[in-house]
Amino acid sequence: MQEKSGRGFEFFVLILASVALIIMVVGGIWTLSGGDTGTGGGQGQGGGGDETSSFPIGTTLFIVGGLVFIVLLFVAILVRTRKVSTAPQPVSTPQAPSPAASDASALPSEEVQRLAIKLLSGDERKMFRRIVDGGGEVLQRVLVAEGTFSKAKVTRLLDKLERKDLVVRSRYGSTNKVRISENLGK
To answer: Which residue spans within the chain are E strands per DSSP?
Structure first.
């Protein structure tokens, strides 16, 4: 719900900035078209009417529109930086954990892992082997970033491995942490 209201606010700021930009453009065009001489009878105009304004309307529109646009730009930047700083951050670095960092006692034996690799076919075997080579735990975005498979293919392969109870995925910031299932070999 928070995200929807944030998007609504961003949309509102975008609309206001667009209106301010339009006002600024209209004021600039008004000024450049020569219709921005003011309504008063300043020097050299020979006007004999009442002086209601000595400041041109087009210039006023241009300045007000520009100031409102700049203020809204700063508001948008503040909202963006605040949203980024409040996003959930991973507990550790966003790289695949090293083999030493994982709990070796919780991992299935190497013999069981090799047997699972032999029983898998093609791409599933490559994906499972990559997870094993990563110490039994790797971030999903790292698997995608390697470029061997597309993002969709990585997701499909992990779905298959998860259904076979070979891997487990858990949320980790904006990605998933993929680790070898503790049920492997039981």
So the answer is: 137-139, 167-172, 175-180
